[in-house]
Amino acid sequence: MALQEQRINPVFHVSLLRVYHVSRDLLFPNRVHPKPYDFGVPYEHKWFVDKLFGHHWKGKNLEFEVRWSLGDTTWELFENCEELEALDRYLEIQGMNCPAELP
To answer: Domains (ranges, CATH) in the chain?
Structure first.
């Protein structure tokens, strides 16, 4: 969403992708590194969990697919989600009493 508000297209054609080559600072000793782009999100902005979409097990670790208030989706470990109300709603929808019961 932040990209679209800045009129930056979030979709790119595969022909625009290039192989990443590590920069060698020894070749360019006086080069100034630009600051990261500011997408207009205030630094103090609080991120809230909107919803849990899914889950999977990575070995013995349970991870949840989390939708954040700004629209981003990430995979988070159970330890990061265990106090969330969204987890309670997700377990209720799945018909489970505790996360260990999830398939």
So the answer is: 2-101 (2.40.50)
